[in-house]
Fold this sequence. Notes:
The complex is a heterodimer of chains A (315) and B (535). Chain A is of the alpha/beta class and 315 residues long.
Amino acid sequence: xxxxxxxxxxxxxxxxxxxxxxxxxxxxxxxxxxxxxxxxxxxxxxxxxxxxxxxxxxxxxxxxxxxxxxxxxxxxxxxxxxxxxxxxxxxxxxxxxxxxxxxxxxxxxxxxxxxxxxxxxxxxxxxxxxxxxxxxxxxxxxxxxxxxxxxxxxxxxxxxxxxxxxxxxxxxxxxxxxxxxxxxxxxxxxxxxxxxxxxxxxxxxxxxxxxxxxxxxxxxxxxxxxxxxxxxxxxxxxxxxxxxxxxxxxxxxxxxxxxxxxxxxxxxxxxxxxxxxxxxxxxxxxxxxxxxxxxxxxxxxxxxxxxxxxxxxxx
Amino acid sequence: xxxxxxxxxxxxxxxxxxxxxxxxxxxxxxxxxxxxxxxxxxxxxxxxxxxxxxxxxxxxxxxxxxxxxxxxxxxxxxxxxxxxxxxxxxxxxxxxxxxxxxxxxxxxxxxxxxxxxxxxxxxxxxxxxxxxxxxxxxxxxxxxxxxxxxxxxxxxxxxxxxxxxxxxxxxxxxxxxxxxxxxxxxxxxxxxxxxxxxxxxxxxxxxxxxxxxxxxxxxxxxxxxxxxxxxxxxxxxxxxxxxxxxxxxxxxxxxxxxxxxxxxxxxxxxxxxxxxxxxxxxxxxxxxxxxxxxxxxxxxxxxxxxxxxxxxxxxxxxxxxxxxxxxxxxxxxxxxxxxxxxxxxxxxxxxxxxxxxxxxxxxxxxxxxxxxxxxxxxxxxxxxxxxxxxxxxxxxxxxxxxxxxxxxxxxxxxxxxxxxxxxxxxxxxxxxxxxxxxxxxxxxxxxxxxxxxxxxxxxxxxxxxxxxxxxxxxxxxxxxxxxxxxxxxxxxxxxxxxxxxxxxxxxxxxxxxxxxxxxxxxxxxxxxxxxxxxx
Lengths: 315, 535
């Protein structure tokens, strides 16, 4: 039995007769202190997956379990870092983190709380910005605050929902290093949701692709055995990294092609309309506009298209 | 420093003065001057143009209360209102003065009276002279036109007579006359008609001209009358002061009663028999009661405009607070629960458009039901005990006005609060869920703070609506305040009170503006996203 599990989980929305399944039969097992990255295209249901793990959303079928017990709702045990920071704009950095600390550790007195908050602000290198409001901070700094807030709750599982995708490349690299550093210092179970193969390989022990939605599910995982600490520049020349990256990228691209091929052919039959011919001076519609003519034109058109498809299939 | 000032201006919504500050710090003088021209000079010029137009157009319309007052007249009226207020305050103080203070004040008053009396006398004499002169002036200026008028009238009368005799001759001719004679007669009659009309018109024109000259202002007379009136008013005021500092002075009266009491007590000690003693004891009791009443007596000051403004502002705040206490919790409930929102929406939609003029009488009667006897009501005592309302003479009319304000102004706050709470960021709610915040922690830590900017936008609109409603409510309910002042001035109907109504326009506008500014500042202080606020 794993630390955090998803067993045959399916989630969908809409009424029964017109249902869209987002996730179908998802199985995931994360071991304690493991760093797992889930990678997928946008719109494939990554956020739904994270919401399931956090307990913000309930599965339609299947179960979410943590240490064997079913997850019934959100809890500070599974800290989540949102893609768009979710900081409370009317509170300072200190206030945002303090709110979390207050509700998770009600037993702390004021001094302990302050000390605890200061430690986590320090951990993400934001001590000079303690008294700033979120809007006075850059995107990277805001995400650090969000990370510090989640870490300060001392969760046993850290869920990172595309935490870096809204940031520019430089800040992103910076924060990746930061996350690595913090994880090295204080190992815990992490599930990272991302759309960046490099990021996944840099941070995670295991990379699991999510297939294209609807009916997305988790594919077989790629074990990332690259040695830690990983250096982003040196890594680029590591043959194993190159191999893994090529394999994952190839797999994902394959998914993309497959998804396109699977898409239902929804060619709409267009009426074959021709402009009226006024040159002859007669105001009668030209021949092509009669019902029969349209049917004929369509038949010819469809026949030629069918040939094309067959041709491309042969090729 | 510079940036602190600029920030303060920004928060106060006074960005207009931003370039002035920047100019003082020598920042890009050319740009700043251009901005000053655009945002300060042009508005000032517009205002001056408005005053000029007003000054021109006002006197051209004559009403039952005289001409529409010009800006200068309105300014004088404002000064008059303030003088009245100050004098009433001084009178009130005088009544309570005692000891050396009273002596000093009395000496001052006496000195002023002796100083003024001869001046007033001269002014009165001068006024009489000027009146005579004015009459003379009028006579001389109308003499010419009068003569002309008379001459014309005589001339026309004679002409008319002459024409009549001519017509008579023509009429006589038609008897046994020819067709031509009859035509001539008809033509002559028509011509006479036209001629008479022309003459009447001419006479009327002359008469109008004469009355225009008669009605024309004679500036020396107006000036003399004003001087004399002002002096008389001041003298009357000083004489009243003198009364308050002498005969009617509270302290003096108390001393008087005390000496009387002492006398009575010594009489009681030496009373000859029981009946006399009883009589004296009764007198003592009466005098003691008298003393107690005297000790609490003050000058019953009439309401002056500044005092009425004060009362109006307090009244609008009472209404505003009541409205907020109702609207904010209801708004939060609406925002939190779709069911509650659905339940209450018809009520909001139905009552929101109802005019204050309808609410007021209803509320007035309902409030009256709670306060059957205004002179002895526990409810009114509670209101009067509220700090800030002491001395405001809270009466049913005041409460009804305040509640009308509340009834009409709660809607914007209610709707905005509901909107603010309902449109809270889903992510913030997710944070609350992950932190497992309880209902109240979620309410006070997440929901209310995030709804505050919209809530304050609603409060700001509410206060503006409340202020507008209040004036009408006071006018209808006769609750002492600006509205009552306007109504009294309207009923008075003199040209002076007409001008004072114009003063009220500016007072109400200025206070409304000030209240709005205060709300803007509050709104800026609570708004966290730094979103600009409409001005």
